Amino acid sequence: MTQQITFRDLGRIAxxxxxxxxxxxxxxxxxxxxxxxxxxxxxxxxxxxxHDYLLFCEHPNVYTLGKSGHVENLLVNDQRLKELDVTFxxxxxxxxxxxxxxxxxxxxxxxxxxxxxTDLGKxxxxxxxxxxxxxxxxxxxxxxxxxxxxVWLDAAIPGKARKIxxxxxxxxxxxxMHGFALNVNTDLSYFNYxxxxxxxxxxxxxxxKELGKKMDIELVKEQLITEFGNVFGAEIVSEHVTV
Length: 243
Known about the structure:
Layout: E1 3-12, H1 15-38, E2 52-58, E3 62-65, H2 78-84, E4 87-90, E5 97-100, E6 104-110, H3 120-136, E7 151-153, E8 162-172, E9 175-183, E10 203-204, H4 207-211, H5 217-232, E11 234-238
Parallel strand pairs: 1-2, 1-11, 3-4, 8-10
Antiparallel strand pairs: 2-6, 3-5, 6-9, 7-8, 8-9
Helix pairs in contact: 3-5
């Protein structure tokens, strides 16, 4: 049977609100899984009762720092953050510092990898594959940079490598949260105030910059959903939600 993933578009939402919403879904899955594993009744359901979600949203200007990141990669003080109208959050995802803001598609898959493959490395490669396939629809050839996560353009060419999609996840008992940030119509100037992902010698780009025009972000979302279903072998069902 094809695994079903519920898609919800949260629209424009503050970073901490989206994080809290992710955590609600993750904790519900963790509780269901814990109860299933602790139930010794031989008549218990065959499935753990966990549910899979794909959340899309757009954040107001925010810098987020992963648990393995270095705060010195934020290059401005609190006063400058206020002037730029940017907030700052330390998070429990992997990775270093990145920027989220208008014109960017932020995706938060809340998946039980026991429904797919219990391999976190493979999960990250699958997220990258979703982006690579979608970008190819626009004749943007992208790929991976050895030793780094995310999706890159001209990764193998010294001095030309640039990141178009950043990634950082958290996983507990094979339940995922956090995810990816794809630069579509993003104002890239905000990356000048950080060391993106802690990498000093690589640039950041967007679909709009590469193609020289503003993108239809709703169409890009639709294409991402299609490719996500293809890569993960899942049926994605849209559901309206108010957070």
